[in-house]
Amino acid sequence: MRRFTVLLLALAGCVGEDIVMDEVDPEVRITNSITTMEIGTTWQFEYMFLNNVGVEEEPDQISWSTSDASVAIINQDGLATALDYGEVMITLSVEYLGEEVETTIPFEVTDDPTSSSQQNRQGTIMTTSSYDLTGDFNIEVDGNELVISFDENYIADQGLPGLYVYLTNNPNTPNGGYEIGPVEVFSGTHEYRIPDVDLFDYDYLFYYCKPFEVKVGQGEIE
Amino acid sequence: MRSKLARVKLNDMRKLFLTLLIAVPFLTQAGGGWTKSKGSAYYKVSQWWVVAAKHYTSNGSIDPNATMGIFNSSFYGEYGITDRVTAIVYFPFFSRAYRNAQVSGTTGMTTSPGEAVNSIGDTDIAVKYGISKPGSKFVFAGTLLLGLPLGKDDGGSDGSLQTGDGEFNQMVRFDLSRSFSIGKVNAYGNVYAGFNNRTQNFSDEFRAGGELGAAFLKNKLWGILRMDVVESLQNGLSSAEGSNGMTIFANNTEFVSYTYEAAYYVSEKVGVSASYSGAFSARLILAAPSYSVGVFLDLK
Fold first, then answer.
1. What is the reported pLDDT for B10?
2. ipTM of this predicted structure
3. Secondary structure of chain A in the HEC alphabet?
4. A161 contact B CB<8A
5. Chains A & B: contacts with CB separation below 8 Å
6. Chain A interface mutation, best of B19, B51, B243, B247, highest count of A Cβ atoms under 10 Å
7. For residue range B258-274, what is the model confidence (pLDDT) as tens digits?
8. What are the pLDDT digits (tens) for A1-19?
9. Has this prediction a pTM greater than 0.80?
């Protein structure tokens, strides 16, 4: 029956639809988290909400809260104020499709200057197809650029036409991601410099064959 | 017998993996080592198609891809200029390639629109010369084929929809054939080998194959079993390097394929044919069977 259907479609030459299973868990992410906060200062937290296909959108309702209002308080615009020494957790909750999505970050109020929790991220790309794709990478911010550096062990298959690399928040599709560009280096060290993208904007390096519209591999950014 | 054998025209097979091989010569079959007698001709109008959601990768595994299809409406003709020289043309006068839209299973939104391109396709012209004397027990012929890049090699929004690969290729091929009988059944066999010189940084190819055919129903029905081998010499650019890496007409394609074909004469001169082709193994080519149906006119 399937072959018969294929035959009919072919004779008609109709452009049909392929369904892509692209659902992911919705996520709210604080993009400028800290590990320490200087007492007596404020910190404006920023966040992004990613829906069930990994695309950023504005949630209907958000809520900021603190675990210990004697150490730090936070208003509903995400502005935190450090009041006393100690450890505290800030929680951001979002309502999405009738469910609550939240994230929590811990930090300590000290005399030291406020410091970001992470300056760089790493990961390992690996194939999700039959094409060769492997290698470790490091991501860091340089000025207003995000720099993705690949180690010596990087290898990508040259037998595949139209291989592109993206930054995404959905490991199933490039939709909603940032297209870095076509893959032009197939082994060894190299880097991409991407303007106006922050360290925590994306969670995956995503390799995609455009002509075949198929995922080739991915690297989760740890 | 020669005329009977010549009736079994094999152009459909030549289109086996057209989707990735448009510019590869289709003259993998053209009456074997037999040439047309002077003034005789064979014409065929046929439809060939393949729809695939999988492809053979560079290491021979099978991976998924967006559903894509291509179908060709073509004219094929052979004409005997002399008893030993036959002119051959394959002209896909309408070729359509398409790729399905990609739709989110979560939101129902189209994330990548479907596309199609229509044009004429890459065309072959060839001359076959009978090296052996007419009437020989074994017949031997050489063919020179020119693959003309008349198809479109940059269709669609990203240039990856194609009805041709944009390269002019030349192929030399030699066929050795013999007819024989199994009881009351007329049959024939053919083997061939060829070299396909490709341009535009595509790898050259070695080609070979064999074929067995037998006649039934008082020679009205011909059944054919065919095998073809394409081996890339790997002396061109990789798929990623060539054509800006955007073509689905991958370079360095290889396959070992089979074809079942039936041709039935509804009258002395007119017949219909159908074929089914698949691959035993392959690299960088769609992983789906191809089909063809056609109507032919055999003017002896």
1. 31
2. 0.82
3. CHHHHHHHHHHHCCCCEEEECCCCCCEEEECCCEEEEECCCEEECCEEEECCCCCECCCCEEEEEECCCCCEEECCCCEEEECCCEEEEEEEEEEECCEEEEEEEEEEEECCCCEECCCEEEEEEEECCCCCEEEEEEEEEECCEEEEEECCCCEECCCCCCEEEEEECCCCCCCCCEEEEECCCCECCEEEEEECCCCCCCCEEEEEECCCCEEEEEEEEC
4. yes
5. 152
6. B51
7. 999 999 999 999 999 99
8. 555 555 555 555 788 999 9
9. yes
